[in-house]
Amino acid sequence: MAKKFQGFGGGANMQQMIRQAQKMQQEMARVTEELENLEVSASAGGGMVTATVSGKKELKALEINPEAVDPDDVEMLQDLVIAAVNEAMRQVDEKSQQEMGKVTGGMNLPGMF
């Protein structure tokens, strides 16, 4: 007499795994929404330039101290702007990874964030 195939560990375990996956998906959606509303500011040049970036990685604000504006050294100002924006973007990435890591238990899920 042939045995009936019961799948991966029985129906009850599969239902529990599905519920856990659905819960994780809902939690990830909630965290994603929170992260999109996040704003991170970073400075360069001792506060001469400050960039504010959203969780969607959009530059929201750029503050430049008038003392940083030297017509003879525009390159320095450009470097400060780039440094401030890049640092704000890095902080958004770091915060996103931290918050999603809390939801996924540290599992790396490609394409999720």
Automatic annotation (TrEMBL):
Major location category of this protein: cytoplasm
Plastid found in the keyword field: no
Keywords: Coiled coil, Cytoplasm, DNA-binding
Free-text function comment from the UniProt entry: Binds to DNA and alters its conformation. May be involved in regulation of gene expression, nucleoid organization and DNA protection.
Assembly, per entry: Homodimer.
Gene3D superfamilies listed in its UniProt record: Nucleoid-associated protein YbaB-like domain
Protein name: Nucleoid-associated protein H8696_00560
Provenance organism: Gehongia tenuis
Family: Belongs to the YbaB/EbfC family.
Coiled coil: 14-41
GO molecular function annotations of the record: DNA binding
